[in-house]
Amino acid sequence: KSQNGLPFSDNASLEDKEGNDNSVTVAVRVRPFGQRELADKAVRRVVSMCGNETTVTSDNGTIHRFAYDFSFWSFDSENGDFAGQELVYNRLAQPLLSRAFEGYNTCLFAYGQTGSGKSYSIMGQGNEKVGIIPRFCKDLFFSAQQARDIKQVKISVEISFVEIYNEKIHDLLGSSKEKSGKKPTLKVREHPELGPYVEGLTTFVVNSFEDVEGWITLGNKSRATAATGMNDKSSRSHSVFTIVLAQTKTEMWEGHDHSITSKINLVDLAGSERQSQAMTISGERLREGANINKSLLTLGIVISLLSEQSAQNGRKKITCIPYRDSNLTWLLKESLGGNSKTTMIATISPANSHIEETLSTLRYPFCVNCIDKL
Ligand code: ADP
Ligand code: MG
Q: Where do the domains of the chain lie, and which CATH numbers do they carry?
């Protein structure tokens, strides 16, 4: 059992009656101070971490304590605790790769206020600070080659990349444009057996990491960004990078093919800050905010219901999980429920100036039993 009372993802005893095993792992990652924060004398560090515990201390001395599966410290190497990109990848994403090869669907989300390190964690920065998506793809092809060589398994890998902006789904890899020059909006449909899918979505079969790298670069370029009062480059959209891994093995003695397909979704969520703080000016921006919150809110509800179900070892079956309340959760339905593994990285700022957002990120209902001693 992990400290927040939720199962670790490798706890095999959690299968419910239908053989479903879904569990949620939650990690907190604090980013270092930025240049401007370092130069500002009024900026104070309010976050500290010890083991799996994250502590936030208010100006009035109130201490808020949270316990999750992982706490990633990232101030400086002098602390001896620096959590770089490789460590975060190894702890959080690599286990999902093994799960994917076992046939589980997986989701990994970065959640937090704008500027707290979501994109840094999920995508990375430049050639040095490579994030989870490129590392995952590199490892995936390495593992795929091993499986081909050792187990004689046929493997195919297919990718797609979408953005959900204002509850509208855009294909980040598609080349089609409307007359206005805008990308067309795609819709989620639900197949009676295969579940929800995005109609008309571009998917690519990829054979090497170099193949994927090109598509990632293209997708990142197409991501819609809009300036907010907090951070010019901040993205107000959710991006979902999906990998479909299909493994086929021919059973010699049976003479037929046996295949398993698993989906891996790596998601960079929109900034979680409240509208007021992002200095919303126009009605358009307000609507965006309302929709973004709707997706985040629904995701929070879905994940907390799923973790509640899994914490009870499947004894209680929650039947009405509101996947269809937002496009994000609808699209990810098959990868959140059923046989699946979900990992959340809550990214936070270390500074006193962001304490309210930090607390609200840490209280986001990822986990049912986290400690917050107010
Ligand atoms: P978000 O996507 O949440 O809006 P970013 O990932 O763009 O935030 O991060 C904001 C800034 O902080 C970037 O300049 C990034 O380089 C820096 N940063 C974020 N997290 C880290 C980290 N863990 N280590 C070093 N720098 C980080
Ligand atoms: Mg970002």
A: 22-363 (3.40.850.10)
